[in-house]
# Entry
Amino acid sequence: MILKKYLELEVLVFILAGALVGYFMLAHQNTHQQTLIQAIQTSNQTPIQPPASQIVGTSPTITPLPTVTPTQNIVKPAKPSTKTPVVFTPAISTTSQISSDGSRKVTVDIVGNKDGNQTYEVLIDNGPIIYSQTLPSGSSISIPYNTWSPNNTYFFLQENSGNLTQIMVFDGSGKSFSNGNEFLDLTGIFAQRVTKYAFGQATGWASNNLIIIESKRSDGTQGPSYWFGVPGESVTYLSTQF
Amino acid sequence: MPKKIKQKKALHLKERKTAIYYLQGYFLSMFIAILVVTVGGFFIKPPVPCANSKTCQSDLTQHIDNNMLGTFDGHTIVPPKIDLAQVNSGISVLGASTSAGEKHIYVDLTTQRLYAYQGANLILNTFISSGKWDPSPVGNFHIWEKLVSTRMAGGSGADAYDLPNVPYVMYFYQDFGFHGAYWHNNFGHAMSHGCINERTVDAKALFEWADGPTGDQPGTAVSICNSFSPPNNCVQNNPLSS
# Structure
């Protein structure tokens, strides 16, 4: 009698276990197959085939977008003269990047020096030079695509020297920060605060004053992400990897 | 003595019965699980996905809230003010000098780039931010609605967001659409709840160039691709509408 009761209880357990497994399988299936059901719900949307006009051998021509400011290279070569001694005319090239809304622009003029070094001059909105630095050949300053903060209050530049990267964060007004520094040394501050991981890259702005930092592990793989707060110089660990 | 033998036999029989019984129980559980999946599939439907879980349930119409503050990622955002008189200039800067042809927008989710074609001409090629917290829908669609501005809200807890004056919105699948993003500047990296974020300058240019539905004519074709090779090689894994 007791055995029979046990067996009946076990049958119930088996049924419950089966029902539970089935339920979880169904839930899992629903999560992963939402797309298929959506397809049925949107059956009024007909599939699009690429137009025949695009399946031709000719490569498309690119019409530049007027609102996007691409890198411009204005090279003024030196003009050698046979009559007078050679006068060194520095080559100037210019790169610039607009803000997300197109209202602000940061420009870096690169001036070639006689000694082979290059001077990088930073300007905002075609105004006066707010920062200048001379770097040896092989080093450079570049403007990241996502340089401007969303509200155009700050921007950052990237200095590349061999394998080393330095991120410099500037005030968009062109003025120094309250501590008197021309820029915030993001990479230097990050290295002081985070010792377990190395700086990887600064991808852009998560909000008006937070720069997203990707760290990297010693084996080169991506580590956790961080926020760098401007101007407070805070470094915040993120549970979400960007 | 016979009683002891009888008891031993009974015990042995019980063990044998138990082993068979558990095997039967296993199959019974599996049967119930399959039954629940099969039958449950008819009654339990997955919820219709939304890019913006709050506003997609309420309405997807034009909204201009110039005095409202926004929230994103735990931060208060001051949205840009929208002046309809200024927005409705009717001037399209993209493709003005190119020949006519079918318009098609491709999004490459791997490289986080957008390509807009008119015929064989590449009109715009820029970085975007696709779904990070929720995936962007892969498939072939048409723009079904164009809104100069709307409010988008969704998420919960720390991920809750409420963003008024989201500019230059073009829905292509339910409430998934292209739009400008003024709250972050991290383009080229996934950063949205499923929509395709663009810089405001790019969103404006694309908005003025692309077509919404008119009469029997569908809006501009949109292909969201897992990867894309110009001019029209769009690779889609489990697309929604094909």
About this structure: Chain B has a mean pLDDT of 85. DSSP finds four helices and 13 strands in chain B.
